[in-house]
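Objective 1.3, modelling of assemblies. Example input:
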Amino acid sequence: MLERMPPPSKRTNDPERTKRDILEVAMAEFASEGYSGARVDAIAARTRTSKRMIYYYFGGKEQLYLAVLEEAYRSIRALEDQLDIESCDAREGLRRLIEATFDHDERNPNFIRLVSIENIHHGKHLKQNVQLRQLNASVIATLDGILKRGREEGVFRDDVDAIDLHLAISSYCFFRVANRHTFGALFDRDLSEPKVLARSRTQIVEMILAWLGAGT
Amino acid sequence: MLERMPPPSKRTNDPERTKRDILEVAMAEFASEGYSGARVDAIAARTRTSKRMIYYYFGGKEQLYLAVLEEAYRSIRALEDQLDIESCDAREGLRRLIEATFDHDERNPNFIRLVSIENIHHGKHLKQNVQLRQLNASVIATLDGILKRGREEGVFRDDVDAIDLHLAISSYCFFRVANRHTFGALFDRDLSEPKVLARSRTQIVEMILAWLGAGT
DNA sequence: TCGATAATGTACGAACTAGTACGTTTACGC
DNA sequence: GCGTAAACGTACTAGTTCGTACATTATCGA
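Predicted structure (tokens):
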């Protein structure tokens, strides 16, 4: 009575593809549901493969989350690399970097959400990972270069350092994406709408440049 | 053998106190663990009362979270009320409002965390609640008044509206607190340290004032 | 004072969820 | 070809977690 299907479709082994598949699905799930809200079974279900493989390749839910977080950070930086900041003056270079940060955050809401989630969990996973700190050092170095050049050109004040500046820029770009939902609900302004977005993009540049130039 | 204690301590009914007790504990738990990470049993355990009462008064986990969120927002606003902004010029009034926002966010990390959590959940609870929108309208009105006055005084540009301004101010104040952990881990700067804090507090004021004055 | 209702405590259950035991198939070196 | 290890699938379990059934006590108005 029981029709026992003889293995109808040939299984095909492809460890790399399987790992990538799991990582991608896991990234979406964690970013959407948070760490505790994410379900291992839900991730497995949306994968070409089974839950067994998650544990085979990653070890467990927490390690999978860690891998996702690392992957997210890794695919992020080197943001400044293709900007060709050297070839223009300090104000123009800074403008480009701000706009690149803005566009990056806008295009990577999952990354933004993962960082928010990581902060909810007191950053305990990030703190464990030494490599990620170095990845982020490059933005600071870039900003530092721009600041130095701006001071030499006489267009920037000298009592603001690279980390101050990074805080100012990324807080605005980050918040716009991270707090989109509550901000939109409370103030009836959809920050993802193209016109509003373009307005914000202009304003953050104005703000930073006005600030740095204020002392000169 | 089994010593059956005859009710040793008289039970004392105090519904209001019980409700407040639950709300306070729940606020801490949700803010610390996130919505999915929060445990109803953990909340009950830290309460004077039992889990039964959570369901008796609030109905369930989600409704409890909603009550916490509402309470958090409610205890927040009227921030601008005791600032006496009318009595000074526009720039000074704005400075006071920025500093008040900054201090407020610094002093209420649980509120900040709850807002982050609510955004992780796509703001779906906040969207359900009509009252909360009105509570927040007052900041916008206050900012609008300041902007108008500043334009009359000829010290503020006229192409920035109250919501633009609120976004700029609160993004910085919020991010400092919300992303404290990842920022600290990545850039080795503890944003909660008094000296760093004071520096940021000065800088956000400078930034906003420089920006608004840039066109004049 | 007494009865009705609000307030509370205890113990339990049903469903979910991370993780695993066990068995099978593919791929690849020799 | 063939044997071995890597890659994979299924079915299950142990523990957790939200929620509730049932019983009891306090309170307050009539």
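Residues 15-73 of chain B form a domain with the Arc Repressor Mutant, subunit A fold (CATH 1.10.10.60).
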